[in-house]
Amino acid sequence: MFVMETMATIRSRHAIRQYTGAAPSPAAMAQIETALQAAPVAMGAYDHLHATIITDPAILKAIDDTAARQFGRANMLYGAPVFILLSAKPAHETLGNADYASAGIVVHNMALAATAAGVGCCYIWGAVAALNQEPATVAKLNLPAGFVPCCGLVLGEFAGDYAPREIPSDRIGINRLA
């Protein structure tokens, strides 16, 4: 299996939006699922998160169609053969910052594992927001009671490879308080 050094992986990760149609290998999926399980979660509330690994073309199409209706743009899952959806069970009435942050961290862990394994990946937020507007489509996901989709990651083989890139040191403003 192809494995990168940590900082090379971080510098190489970028959104892949075109896939060959081939799913990641079982070994790569196992690595990605290990990264999912290894992610930190706010207050250690692991039971407040749930992952749904979707490979059923009909469900992927239903999610894409839902997103297209909401945003007027098709193919928001980019034709990827795998979509890992992270859902959270709100501690209160609605999802809060810690819920979204934990789900996002899990997805980012998986993205780094995918990059290290040479598997294409792209964060998915908009299609998930659209999904939450259509309970009939959410029902197809068989989520545990009380869980709400938060974000996800599409995965698949792609033509090309990852290579470390230069990252400008001023992309994000930094204050230093000493």
TrEMBL record:
<dbReference type="InterPro" id="IPR029479">
    <property type="entry name" value="Nitroreductase"/>
</dbReference>
<comment type="similarity">
    <text>Belongs to the nitroreductase family.</text>
</comment>
<dbReference type="GO" id="GO:0016491">
    <property type="term" value="F:oxidoreductase activity"/>
</dbReference>
<dbReference type="InterPro" id="IPR000415">
    <property type="entry name" value="Nitroreductase-like"/>
</dbReference>
<feature type="domain" description="Nitroreductase">
    <location>
        <begin position="10"/>
        <end position="155"/>
    </location>
</feature>
<protein>
    <submittedName>
        <fullName>Nitroreductase family protein</fullName>
    </submittedName>
</protein>
<dbReference type="Pfam" id="PF00881">
    <property type="entry name" value="Nitroreductase"/>
</dbReference>
<keyword id="KW-0288">FMN</keyword>
<keyword id="KW-0560">Oxidoreductase</keyword>
<keyword id="KW-0285">Flavoprotein</keyword>
